[in-house]
């Protein structure tokens, strides 16, 4: 693979992003777009410096613990209604704590490409869960989600083995948890008057409780970080990627429609691959990447147009 292919991929991807996010008056996508770029680096950092070297449960505990510390100083303990605090803790427990439990165990049954393939169902769960809560069927959101899934599959499909049913179900459970957290946070906080930053620590506290339990049950104390780089990556992932990242992502979820939220979940896949190619020079099918990214961003454009038309 020559050095020119990643450059062309970046140019195509950047142009599509500009078209989708700015040419269609989509400034409300700023939060999700920024976190997409932020999390694009996280995949490679985990794969290069942590996976197989540091206990996964310890990594999860560190990330959630540090993220909690970031928002604890801003938490308004007495001004937060108890009902709101409990709901935020429950959302964090599901979206991060339980999700990670299923996700990391799925690697015992699936290869990495299989796990990545099955994660593309998250947008579908977001749209279906929202429709279930709204007690209605929204065809345009479902169409946008299915188109985004098609784009992600175009990038990541490499075939699967026969004995993947258990692992597949675990990944789907993780997807459902992540989708549930996004949809319920959006519904809970989009009209909330309290600043999100003043109450978001409750979200991480809920996730931290689950992480502590899981590390106590499944953690391997013999595989702790041993290098400055590993500790540095964990600190970055905890404070920036998890702390600021999940705050900005969930806040962004409250100001976009459900279709756009569903599509943006799969935009992470091509973004992560591009970062991996350019910085760590990993092999990837550039043709699949370009096609998949184009389909995902087309889904975003279609969703934005349909939503704008519906509002006129």
From TrEMBL:
- Keyword Zinc-finger, does the record have it? no
The keyword Metal-binding is annotated on this UniProt entry: no
Q: Where in the cell is it found?
A: Cell membrane
Q: Where is the EamA domain?
A: 31-155, 166-302
Q: Which domain of life is it from?
A: Bacteria
How does it sit in the bilayer?
Multi-pass membrane protein
Q: Keywords for this entry?
A: Cell membrane, Membrane, Repeat, Transmembrane, Transmembrane helix, Transport
Looking at the UniProt entry, the stretches that span the membrane are 6-23, 30-50, 56-77, 84-103, 109-129, 141-157, 163-185, 197-218, 230-249, 256-280, 286-303
Per its record, how is this protein called by name?
Carboxylate/amino acid/amine transporter
- Give the species this sequence originates from: Pseudoalteromonas lipolytica
């Amino acid at each position: 693979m020559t050095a020119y292919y990643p450059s062309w991929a970046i140019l195509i991807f950047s142009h599509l992003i500009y078209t989708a996010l700015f040419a269609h008056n989509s400034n409300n996508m700023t939060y999700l777009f920024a976190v997409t770029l932020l999390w694009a680096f996280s995949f490679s950092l985990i794969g290069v410096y942590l996976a197989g070297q540091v206990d996964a449960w310890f990594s999860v505990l560190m990330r959630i613990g540090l993220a909690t510390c970031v928002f604890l100083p801003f938490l308004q303990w007495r001004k937060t209604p108890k009902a709101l605090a409990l709901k935020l803790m429950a959302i964090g427990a599901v979206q991060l704590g339980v999700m990670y439990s299923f996700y990391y165990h799925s690697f015992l049954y699936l290869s990495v490409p299989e796990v990545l393939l099955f994660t593309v169902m998250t947008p579908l769960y977001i749209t279906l869960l929202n429709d279930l809560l709204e007690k209605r069927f929204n065809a345009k959101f479902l169409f946008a989600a299915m188109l985004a899934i098609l784009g992600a599959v175009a990038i990541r499909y490499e075939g699967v083995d026969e004995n993947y049913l258990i692992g597949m179900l675990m990944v789907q459970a993780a997807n459902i948890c992540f989708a549930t957290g996004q949809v319920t946070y959006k519904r809970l906080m989009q009209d909330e008057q309290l600043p999100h930053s003043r109450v978001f620590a409750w979200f991480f506290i809920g996730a931290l409780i689950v992480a502590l339990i899981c590390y106590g049950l499944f953690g391997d104390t013999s595989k702790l970080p041993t290098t400055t780089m590993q500790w540095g990556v964990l600190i970055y992932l905890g404070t920036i990627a998890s702390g600021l990242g999940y705050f900005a992502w969930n806040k962004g979820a409250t100001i976009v429609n459900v279709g756009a939220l569903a599509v943006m979940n799969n935009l992470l896949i091509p973004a992560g691959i591009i970062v991996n190619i350019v910085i760590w020079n990993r092999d990837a099918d550039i043709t699949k990447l370009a096609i998949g990214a184009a389909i995902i961003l087309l889904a975003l454009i279609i969703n934005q147009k349909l939503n704008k038309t519906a509002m006129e």
